[in-house]
Amino acid sequence: MIIEKNKFYISPTDLNNFVSCNYHAFNDLNEDIKGLKKKEPSEDMKLWRKYGKDHEKNYFEKLKNKYSNNITINPTKSYDDRYKDTVEAIKKGYDLIYKAYFIEDEFRGEADFIIKNNEKSKLGNFSYEVYDTKITKNLKPLHVLQITSYSYLISKITGILPKLMHLVDGNNEHHSYKVTEFLDYFKFTRSKFKKFLSDKGEKNLYPEKCNHCNYCIWQEECLKIWVGDNYINQVSRINKSQTTKLKKENINTVEKLGKANIKKIKAKINKSTLERLHQQANLQEEKRLTGISKFIVLDQIVGQGFYKMPKEDEGDVFFDIEGFPDSNKRNLEYLHGLYYKEKGKNTFKFFFVEENNRDSEFEIFKQLVKFLKKRFDDYPNAFIYHYNDYETRALKELASEYSSIFPEGNNLVDDLLRKQKFVDLYRVVERTIQTSEKDLSLKSLEKFYRKEREANIKTASDSIRLYDNWCSTKDEKIKKDIIHYNQEDCVSTGDLRNFLLDEKKKDDRYNDIPWFTPTISKKDEEKTKEVKRKTKPKSKKKTVQQIEEEESLLINTLNNSKKNKNIINKIIDLVGFHRREAKPDNWKYYDRLNKTPDLLEDDAECLANCIFVKEVKDEETNKTIYIYEFETQNFKIKEGDSATELYEQLNYGKVGTITEDEDDGNFVEIISNKKDKPPDIFTFKPTGSPSADAIRDALNLFLNEYVNSNNLKYKCGLDILENSYPDVLKVKKGEPIFDENKDLIDEAKNTVKNLKSSYLLVQGPPGAGKTFISAHMILALIKDGKKVGVTSNSHKAINNLLRQVENLADFEFAGFKKGSKPEYKLNGKFILDKASVRREDYDSYLLFAGTAWLFSDIDLNQRLDYLFIDEAGQVSLANTLAMSTSTKNIVLIGDQMQLSQPIKGTHPGIAGKSSLEYLLEGYDTIPSHKGIFLNETRRLNKKICEFISTSFYDSRLKSHTVTNERYIKLSLDKINDEGIIYVPMSHKNNSQKSIEETNYIKNLLSKIIGKRCKDNKNTKERKINLEDILVVSPYNMQVNNLTRNLPKGSKIGTIDSFQGQEAKIVIISMASSDPENVPRHKSFIFSRNRLNVAISRAECVAIILFNPNLLNTSCQKIEEMRLINNFCKLLKYTIKDGEAYS
Questions:
Q1: Predicted local distance difference test score (pLDDT) of residue 43
Q2: Which segments of the chain have a pLDDT < 70?
Q3: Distances in Å between the alpha carbon of 329 and those of 229, 907, 926, 1086, 1116?
Q4: Packing angle between helix 407-418 and helix 577-593, nearest 10 degrees?
Q5: What is the radius of gyration, based on Cα positions, of the chain?
Q6: β-pairing, 384-386 with 422-424?
Q7: Are 252 and 208 in contact (CB under 8 A)?
Q8: How would DSSP label each residue in 179-229?
Q9: Closest CA to 492 of 320, 710, 697
């Protein structure tokens, strides 16, 4: 930032600093006035900058050979002269401009390169795009924000916004981005920064901890303030929400918290948490006054702390992983360190990647597995100790991703987890001791059990930066420093374990605490007894070992195949998909066994720590109802689910009524006819997924057919796998297969009839009639005597399409819908509901409907002429290929811009994608040579459609004229009668529930109900009722809150559950107050697809409520910035008065 004569001149770097932390910009403003001192760059950072400059110069030399008509803008000239020279160079049309300099008002900056293209602009038949070099391999949001700003500044000269912008990383890999996907975020942040500067940085601004702290040049200045003020954020393990609540009660220092009478504190903080913070404050206060560090051993609770410590074993291993962030995928795990005893001597062993790529990562993972396998063969009673959960998470991901090509790794990790061989010392420490230090990091604890570290690297962020440096330089000294840092962590973990054992031995109170031994549930015990009693297996179900042997055999065959290597590699990715997909549920079960019920309250898959209240006998059913009370928590368990206790693994009946009330408490019923009474503390086990064995077998059938046969038995599936053009009669591959100017229904029917054992894509944006068109195609094929299948990921979607088929049918035909539960039934006119169908009866039917299990049945192999897969964006590629064994042609119907398939496992390459994601990667809309794009919506009016079309559908979606016949008349001062309205909300500390937003919606509904609307030109104007309004939220907790407070009969649900529905008015409640209070991850609440689904339910008006502070986020990944950009676009639709409601 440059300040001259009270005027500010800012660059993209300044803007990024402001986005990362307002106080960073505040210090930039006040550097000279307050005499602030920046953190000096380290020697390795200086060297890193030099490498960056060298990388830029080398790339310039490469570009000069390609673009001889180039110019360099002299960087030694004044800012104004550099800008004038840049404008002149652009107008003259140089092919390459190096060091282009831009100015707009207070904003300015230098782009590495701008390169001419053929896009027309006000200057002629050319324009420019930005190219920037970065020495790092880990591209970050700040890099994209920077090139977005340059792209915006180019548009001010050329009159046209560049379509793309580009980054070249330290590996010389080229990355391109759409400017429009980041532009609104740039404008929003720039506007906020301008206001910040005009207010002179908000004079009363106070620094708060944030994710930027460890990277900030002003970190030491903030620490001075916090230490000087004894600020409450110094208390170990206090979060921002707790800090805010305590400050409201004038508890803003460590001293005040320590002296407070916690019984009088009204803040809604869990009692045990408040007691911990109070005691922590006193410990830290004592150190501040005496200068002496100390720790205390806590009272031990069964199942926690010392109860989690195993007996010391000679084979114990102390383990630490170093990972490097990847902007698009999981971290690259580049170093495994192990500390252990070998023949009585302390030994350190490490595995370090040779290159910065996944192949090297895989090699060192294999080495690690080989070491651990031998170690546990030699020492079966040993344990692996680590600090915090990064190591186990990383190992699960590695094991899962490489399981197909390296099942030994998956088996070992699975076995170690099942046997509970990992000991997380962080979980032991947090329940065992409390210290006078400001955090529980390994480095902070070390003062109690070991001398100061010798390694040059002090923090994890330092090691990441140095690894990035090593990737570019291969400097051996840097590598040694990183390994030494890892060694210190491993040794420290071992020392910490010994320290804890010593403390346990010192106090007689802990002598009776048993050593930790792996638990086994009652259900597992029964299974073990059953296996011992029986010599033959009860069913034909394959064992995990048999499955893995089959996969291993298939992969060996694939590796030796001489067929297309690209396809072979894709098939290898797909092998084991269903086993990998099921694995996280198994691993989570063992993770949960290691946690206490109170810790599981944060696990949304469970309903945890429910306390027995009373039992009631239902005389009518002769069943017993057990009533339990539970703390407020997010959960997915619902009425009717199996009531299985997590730790016992025993079923006690069904979940009954669940009630949540802030005043009266939260209660859940267990309806049981069992003899045994459920335990007094009950944690509900998450409901499991059905076995996918049949689908897996069908997938393997398809894959084996490709490898072992030269015929095209499953050609439609092969066309999908090869991602080739659809094979359509009389259409050359690569040419448009559909004429959008002709009659839509006739074109769709003709196209599907002309498929030649291939596939067809149909993308149906919201309200574009994909179900209507699909039904017409299905009926046309059945009329021609074709056998047609209908499937999707849910029975609801299947039934929706089947009802449309029956409604449009002008003839009857034999068809069935397979479903095993009453709620799956179609109850159709002539399509029959069947729980099962005999093989010999298949010939009697022309329409077959059911889930993937039906179409993976070997008895249906190649029986169908066509298979229609609805909501194909939610069907995995693996399941699509499995089902392709049943049919000669596949029609994939869906919209990849709406909610996609939920993936649990970690999968390599293409395996984790849905069929639509795979076939349309990089496309928001289907190109004309790949399939049919339904380009008219009969749902969205023109104003809503404009936002949806430009944001999600490449501006190809248009409103049908029928939408002009539909309207509402609200006659409200601030709410328009059509389009999108954004209502800014003011609230604090809300995570998944907002009373403020609920009250606003309740008040709004009272004003809307009874107003006038019209459905179409053939209907009369009528009153708006609750059926005309959908109220949605991303969170179940807010849905429950809305349900309790809005009028009975209101249509309320999660955004996900309402996909496919529509209403005149849609009200969207985002609930969360700010990024700090967002649960899960930002990609959930800011999901591009989820926002599309939410707004596009509306025919006339979409009203979205969210706190503008949600946008005040420092993006950690480029994708996060892309997602938040869409919410920034909504700001232009702010309610008329613009004020925030509370």
A1: 65
A2: 5, 43-44, 200-203, 327-328, 455, 519-541, 662-663, 711, 1080, 1138-1142
A3: 41, 11, 25, 18, 13
A4: 20
A5: 32
A6: parallel
A7: no
A8: GGGTHHHHHHHHHHHHHHHHTTT-TT------TTGGG-TTHHHHHHHHHHH
A9: 320
The three-state secondary structure class of 491 is: helix
In three-state secondary structure terms, 755 is strand
Give the pLDDT score at 531: 39
Q: For residue 508, what pLDDT is reported?
A: 85
Distance set, CA 572 to CA 569, 699, 903, 1015 (Å): 5, 12, 18, 53
Q: How far apart are CA 356 and CA 362, in angstroms?
A: 11
pLDDT at 327: 63
Structural contact between residues 1092 and 1059, judged by C-beta atoms closer than 8 angstroms: no
- Whole-number pLDDT of residue 370: 97
Judge contact between 277 and 238, C-beta under 8 A.
yes
Q: 452: how many CB neighbours lie within 10 A of its CB? A: 7
Amino acid letter, 943: K
Burial class of residue 473 (count of CB atoms within 10 Å of its CB; 0-12, 13-18, 19+): middle
Residue listed under structure tokens 């005389």: 619
Q: Which residue reads 């708060």 in tokens?
A: 208
Task: Tell me how far apart the alpha carbons of residues 476 and 922 are, in angstroms, rounded to a whole number.
Answer: 39
- Residue type at position 298: L
Cα angle for residues 764, 767, 773 (degrees, 5° grid):
55
What is the 8-class DSSP label of residue 521? -
Which tokens is 66 given? Answer: 């390609």
The whole-number pLDDT of residue 523 equals 46
Measured CA to CA, the distance from residue 535 to residue 488 in angstroms comes to 51
Contacts of 1003 (CB under 8 A, 6+ apart): none
Strand-pair partners of 132: 167
- Say if CB 702 and CB 887 are below 8 A apart: no
Burial class (CB in 10 A: 0-12, 13-18, 19+), 977: middle
Please, are residues 207 and 222 in contact by the beta-carbon 8 Å criterion?
Answer: yes
C-alpha closest to that of 1102 among 941, 897, 950: 941
Contact 607, 684 (CB under 8 A): yes
Would residue 1138 be called left, alpha or beta, if left means φ above 0 and alpha means ψ between -120 and 50 degrees? left
- Return all residues near 213 (Cβ < 8 A) that are at least 6 apart: 21, 219, 222
Closest alpha carbon to 59 in 133, 9, 128, 114: 133
- Return d(Cα 1027, Cα 1064) in angstroms, integer: 9
Within 10 A of 910 (CB to CB), how many other CB atoms are there?
A: 18
Dihedral sign computed on CA atoms, order 961, 962, 968, 969: positive
Per this entry, what is the length of the chain? 1142
The pLDDT of residue 530 is: 43
Q: What does the alpha-carbon distance between residue 923 and residue 901 come to, in Å, rounded to a whole number?
A: 17
Q: Do the bridges between strand 1063-1069 and strand 1098-1106 make them parallel or antiparallel, or are there none, so unpaired?
A: parallel
3-state secondary structure of 353: coil
Going by the DSSP 8-state scheme, the letter that residue 317 receives in this structure is: E
**Contact of 1092 with 1104, CB cutoff 8 Å:** no
Tokens read off for 80:
């104004």
Paired tokens of 880: 């699509």
885: left (phi over 0), alpha (psi -120 to 50) or beta: alpha
In angstroms, rounded to a whole number, what is the distance separating the alpha carbons of residues 94 and 1053? 56
Neighbours of 237 (CB within 10 A): 14
What phi and psi values does residue 1094 have, to the nearest 5 degrees? -60, -55
Judge whether 350 and 336 are in contact, CB under 8 Å: yes
DSSP string, 618-678: ETTTTEEEEEEEE-S------TTSEEEETTTTEEEEEEEEEEEETTTEEEEEEEE--SSPP
